[in-house]
Amino acid sequence: MRNRFLIAGLAAMAMSAAALAAPSGFEAAVFEDLNHFRDDPAAYADDLTGYRDRFDGKLLIAEEGEDIDIMTNEGVAAVNEAIRALRSEAPRPAFVWSDMLQRAAADHVAVQSRSGAVGHYSPNSDPGIRMRARGGGPYVSEVITYGHQTPPGVIHQLLIDDGVPGRGHRFSLLRSDLRYAGVACGPHPHYRLMCVILMSPTRDGTAPPPPQRSTP
Predict the structure, then answer these.
(1) What predicted TM-score, i.e. pTM, was given to this entire model?
(2) Which one of 78, 84, 95, 148 is CB 3.0 to 4.6 Å from 181, fit for a cystine?
(3) DSSP β-ladder status, 141-146 and 55-56
(4) Residue 96: in which H helix or E strand, if any?
(5) Strands 141-146 and 180-188
């Protein structure tokens, strides 16, 4: 019962927000860079080499177009590891844009832009609940960045995955079964900008069809 009322509340909040089906220029550029990576992960690894020159110890110095320096956990070591890992990766299918995934991502941006919180969860909410509030299903994978203010910087942060055991964000961006994505970005009171990317095997987050069995 509690979740039902929560879903209804999220849906009402979403309906009162501005329509976000059409991505902003920034969000469209993040989506384009994401597919640029998926098209050839091995070649995209070369795009990360410029990061190495921007470190002062573990501090990533802001480049033109970004407002803040970012203190990392691993420094250059994480960049080098990402470059080595991506050079052995094969191309993945391009993502198809999903309005529903984008709207659910935007709902999370709206909450954290006010609260200043970080992470995938807010009180009594998670990516699956947000998708249900939008009329979809919970079969989604979510990645979030904070602080990077250029579209390539958003994707680079997720691929380097500094300080994340197992590089879970990178793994999500490489999953071939995820075919649809939506991107929402907005202001954050502590990190200036946040971006949420929701991905799913289906356009609306419902369960993908079972694999077809080959007949003998």
Answers:
(1) 0.86
(2) 95
(3) unpaired
(4) strand 96-97
(5) unpaired
Tokens of 58: 């573990």
pLDDT by position in tens, the chain (length 216): 434 433 344 444 443 343 445 679 999 999 999 999 999 999 999 999 888 888 999 999 887 766 678 899 999 999 999 999 999 999 999 999 999 999 999 999 999 999 999 999 988 899 999 999 999 999 999 999 998 889 999 999 999 999 998 999 999 999 999 999 999 999 999 989 999 999 999 999 999 988 777 666
Contact at 8 Å (CB) between 208 and 177?
yes
**Alpha-carbon gap, residue 137 to 201, rounded angstroms:** 11
CB 184 within 8 A of CB 206: no
Place of tokens 């971006």: 195
